[in-house]
Structure formats: C-alpha cells, structure tokens
From TrEMBL:
InterPro entries assigned: CbiG_hydrolase, CobE/GbiG_C, CobE/GbiG_C_sf
PANTHER family: COBALT-PRECORRIN-5A HYDROLASE
Record-annotated CobE/GbiG C-terminal domain positions: 9-124
GO molecular function, one term: hydrolase activity
Protein name: Cobalt-precorrin 5A hydrolase
Keywords assigned: Hydrolase
GO biological process: cobalamin biosynthetic process
Ubl conjugation is among the record's keywords: no
Length: 129
C-alpha cells in the first residue's frame, strides 16, 4: 500500500445540536481540501459525548465510529491546541487529537484542523499506512 492510497482517519469536533448535514458537508470539504478520496476513509473519531451527533453520518457512510473519553485525548500532542476548546470540551484538542489517536502510534496529520462551519475536521494517516 502506498502513502497515496493508505487509509486515513477523520477526527471531528462539533457543538451539540449540529445537524448531520453540516457534518457531512464539513467532512466532504475537508477531504477535498486534502485532495483525498472518500474511499480512503477508514474511520471517523470524536469525543464519546458526541456519539449521537456523529453516528448517523458514520453509519450512512459505512465508517467505523471511534469514540474517546476526554482523558484519552488530553494527552495527545497536537500542533494546534485551543484554549477555547479546552474550556468547552475539557481537552485542548478534539479533531486533531481524535484523528491522531484513532490512526495509531506514529500517525501524522495530513490535514491539520480546519473549522468548516460549526464543525472542526482533521485528517490523520497511520505511520504504517
């Protein structure tokens, strides 16, 4: 498998009440920004308390949903931590941290977090991908 065809993991952060259509749009926009095909997505990851919002999109697209408790994301080193996100979510990063953690040890960000409407998306690829 080459780096140009290796699976990627999406990390998403969103506020309560964001509709599935907004998440769908943000995911598609992030993939387009990164120049990645939808077929490369191996999973979508987020905070456990956002499962209800992300699950319909993951199910419709056939992607596994990976959920993390805040304490599992708190220790992930990210390039763009946010004081605002830390105050709201209890962790300095959701999208980047979830993408990196779900993609596994040594993962790299292909797309650092992008705020797309009311959704933040980051894309990571595993080191073995």
């Amino acid at each position: 498998m080459t780096a140009t065809s290796a699976p990627v993991t999406l990390g998403v952060g969103l506020r309560s009440g964001v509709p599935a259509a907004a998440l769908d749009h943000a995911v598609d926009a992030a993939l387009a920004l990164a120049g990645l095909a939808v077929a490369r997505v191996a999973a979508i990851a987020t905070l456990d308390r956002r499962a209800r919002l992300v699950e319909p999109v993951a199910t419709r697209r056939g992607w596994p949903l990976v959920l993390f408790a805040p304490e599992l994301l708190a220790g992930v080193e990210v390039p763009h931590p946010s004081v605002r996100v830390a105050a709201a979510a209890g962790v300095p990063s959701v999208a980047e941290a979830a993408a990196l953690r779900a993609a596994g040890r040594g993962a790299v960000l292909l797309l650092p977090k992008r705020v797309l409407g009311h959704v933040t998306v980051a894309i990571a690829q595993s080191a073995t991908g």
